[in-house]
Amino acid sequence: MNHFRKLNLKFNIYARLKGANFKLPKNKPRCLIFLAADYGNLGDVAITYAQKKYLQDHFPDYDIIEIPAAKTLTAIRSIKHQIQSEDIITVIGGGNMGDMYGDIELLRLMVVRAFKNNRIILFPQTIDYSNSTDANWLKRLSQKIYSSHPRLTMTAREQVSYETMKCLYPTVDVRLVPDIVMGLDEKNDVQREDIVTICLRNDKEKADNTKIVESILDECTNRQLKHVFYDTHIGGDRYPESQKYEELRKIWAQFRKSKFVITDRLHGMIFAFITETPAIVLPNSNFKVEGCYQWICNCGYIQMISTANPKLTEKDILKTPHSLSPSLHERLNHILDRIIV
């Protein structure tokens, strides 16, 4: 049996047999965040944080409620029996639409299928499907479920995903907006130290940037700059809300005190942007980093190495960064308003 078909069957059986009570408050309309990050990917934690803040700002009369990723499967049935027509369903943004993280995509599909009468907003995502048999099955299932929902808004965070969504789901309301974390402003006046923070991935999205990194580190050594490794993925799961957001504050503090950052992580780049930290950004194995870079490429303190600019080195980034342009920040937040308009 197809892998995702088997997993989908397993998820549905588990949701019926292991469903747990998830009590919603009743004094206000509710806005729910499904698949809220409760695990050690600080990029996803930041998305959850930024999404919650965005919803609090735009829906002040609603209770904004996180449904942790670990509880999504067991909570769906309980929440379905409590939901009211004025309640809004949202699903966390990120880079997990498609078959690379097919288990997350199946959970998102279960949420969309469960709440047919509610407004649903899928926050800014990257979508990417391979050409495997398993992937094609999942893609067809997503087309069936997304296209049948009458009140679904789907948002893409870069142009490639926007075009893919428009092609796969022509009847769905699809919008192009930045990653939700780009709307945050986390800068302050902390004195920078002679530290280079290296934030590189070591998973299936990793590209081979070894020679580039070695070259930049050699230059750092020549300039007597220390370097530390600090990934946006810290491992673990089922983090309580207070702990996961404390970990987020820690990595932002590390970026703020760094002379500059080297990263191939999308949210490594975005954390540099929102903390006004100079950064050298390396490509990863897909298009999402370069695609999202287009939103902030003119900020003045983040440079991306690409086929068009393969020889960028540490020398190019060791300069006084421009301040985060108020006009750029305002423009990004104005575009993010498209999510709910």
List the helices and strands and how they pair.
Blueprint: H1 3-17, E1 30-36, H2 42-58, E2 63-68, H3 69-82, E3 88-91, E4 94-98, H4 102-114, E5 119-128, H5 133-147, E6 152-156, H6 159-168, E7 173-176, E8 195-199, H7 210-222, E9 226-229, H8 241-257, E10 260-263, H9 266-274, E11 279-281, H10 288-293, E12 302-304, H11 314-317, H12 326-336
Task: Give an overview in words.
With 341 residues, the chain is an alpha/beta fold. The protein has two domains: 3-183, Rossmann fold (3-Layer(aba) Sandwich), CATH 3.40.50; 195-323, 3-Layer(aba) Sandwich (Rossmann fold), CATH 3.40.50. 42% of the residues lie in helices and 18% in strands. It has twelve helices and twelve strands. The protein has helices at residues 3-17, 42-58, 69-82, 102-114, 133-147, 159-168, 210-222, 241-257, 266-274, 288-293, 314-317, 326-336; strands spanning 30-36, 63-68, 88-91, 94-98, 119-128, 152-156, 173-176, 195-199, 226-229, 260-263, 279-281, 302-304. Strands 1, 2, 3, 4, 5, 6 and 7 form a seven-stranded parallel beta sheet that branches. Strands 9-8-10-11-12 form a five-stranded parallel beta sheet, with helices on both faces. Helix 1 (3-17) crosses helix 3 (69-82), helix 1 packs across helix 4 and helix 4 runs parallel beside helix 5. It is globular, with a radius of gyration of 20 Å.
Rg, please? 20 Å
Q: Cα distance, first to last residue?
A: 42 Å
The CATH class of the largest domain is Alpha Beta
Helix count?
12
Order of helices and strands: HEHEHEEHEHEHEEHEHEHEHEHH
> Structural class given helices, strands, pairing?
alpha/beta
Helical content band: 40-55%
The name CATH uses for the topology of the largest domain is: Rossmann fold
Query: How many domains would you count in the coordinates?
Result: 2
Main beta-sheet annotation = 7 strands, parallel
Number of strands: 12
Q: Low-confidence parts, pLDDT < 50 over ≥5 residues?
A: none
Mean pLDDT across every amino acid position:
90
Query: Approximately what portion of the residues adopt beta-strand conformation?
Result: 15-25%
